[in-house]
């Protein structure tokens, strides 16, 4: 089934450790996004990528980095995790070539706890 | 700037009753509007979208929403609630911003369906 695969599903991490959340899509969408979801705050954009080789900062980028080496993969890295990064992280993609009225497709999320 | 307000973080309805989830938006340009549903431990799934044209939009699972420009609203309705409708619902507005698709999500409404 076409879609977005995120790994790991959940993780408990010690503060100060480095962590990479993986995201792979098989829909050949050019645009990809990383959001964090926190209770009462909805979804907030961390970083985005309009196409392979380009990335941009979203609403809450501090403490996170991304790369887009190819169309399918869009990993999110926490260089040195802090407890405030405890959240549920969602990767999404959209077919940007068809315009800004296209819906985003979401993975099932990574539940990350920083202790 | 764009924003989304969902009135009511929790809504309870009896099985078979009308479902009404409220969403108001603000946008400096004609908006693209979406409703997404999120089931526990899953990502967001598209219910329906409004881009242009007919203001009454029909989606999956019997849901529909009406775009009312004069009221800046995009409320979600379903004539008869089913137990399987229990989930969290997110309204979102999308527009082009700085070269990417900026999607602003509401904070979500949890729908409880009472047998």
Characterization of this structure:
The complex is a heterodimer of chains A (115) and B (115). Chain A is mainly β. Chain A is 0% helix and 47% strand. Chain A has no helices and eleven strands. Chain A has strands spanning 4-7, 10-13, 19-25, 31-38, 42-49, 56-57, 64-66, 76-78, 87-94, 105-106, 110-114. In chain A, the strands form two sheets. In chain A, strands 2, 4, 5, 6, 9, 10 and 11 form a seven-stranded mixed sheet that branches. Chain A has a four-stranded antiparallel sheet with strand order 1-3-8-7, with no helix packed on it. The radius of gyration of chain A is 13 Å and the shape is globular. The termini of chain A are far apart. Chain B is mainly β. In chain B, 0% of the residues lie in helices and 60% in strands. In chain B, the strands form two sheets. In chain B, strands 2, 4, 5, 9, 10 and 11 form a six-stranded mixed sheet that branches. In chain B, strand 7 (64-68) and strand 8 (73-78) form a beta hairpin. Chain B is globular, with a radius of gyration of 14 Å. Chain B starts with a strand and ends with a strand. At the A-B interface, strand 5, strand 9 and strand 10 of A face strand 4, strand 5, strand 9 and strand 10 of B.
